[in-house]
Amino acid sequence: MLWVSILLLLAPIALANGAMGLGMEMWDLRYWAAYCLSMVAVEAWWMQRKLELSWSRSIFTSLVANAVTGSLCGIGCFAPVLHQPFVGTGSDPSPFWNSVVILLMFAIPSALAESVVWKVSLRDAPGNKIVLQSLFVHLWTIPIGLVILLLPARPYLGLEATAEYRRFREIQTIARGIEEYLQANERLPSADSPAQLLAELRLFTERKFPVPTEIAFQPVAFGRFGDLTNGVKMEFNPELRGMTLKALSTRSDGKRIWFGKIPSTYPQGGPIIFIEPAADDQVKVVAQQSNRPEKRE
To answer: What is the pTM of this model?
Structure first.
């Protein structure tokens, strides 16, 4: 009963060596799966040697232990803080250092939770020895796990998707701010850079959520140790800078016009902000996520 109570207490932070839970939201799932299988095998090998077990029993117990701690993520990951980057922000995380923090931070609680399973399975084995060996194998395999997870050139596909979603939400806030600015001033902003646009729109966006930042204007592509976009940011249509509402209605000719988009030199594209006509000589500002750059108009 004592060991079961300990297991339940560890549930909110036991994430199977830090990757079987949050790892699904961060890394390329193919390499995440390879990482999980490798860690199960290494743990089984280590515990088999140190506890003098048969291979079959060691592998079975390792599978069960990791399955249990992985499923405990269903309890622990309800904590909102666990779904936020530990280094950086949701829209601008630090991928490599988040990997290091996740693997380090959750190695110990995962090891403790798994040692409970090992103890239940091996009733005759000394509890202290099981805990120490579980802790040791979880710690010395961290570098091996990091190497496996960082094998692809873009290993953080899950984190990329999350950051892209959060940046696009900021772009939607910016689009709403442009529309309100246009209604209030009867002209479009005259900014020619992200910083200037945010400054012009500040009164229309500062009370909205999420509050936009400059990183929202940049596409998402993470390499092993940093950003792969080389600082590419959204460009703005020079023909629309400061254009009045009346001139805009004439210029659009019933068709939408791009206000801001990722340069066509960047092959993967990114968010686009359109100005499109509406009823009663009004216009709407619409944000769209694109997988490839639009053709210039």
So the answer is: 0.80
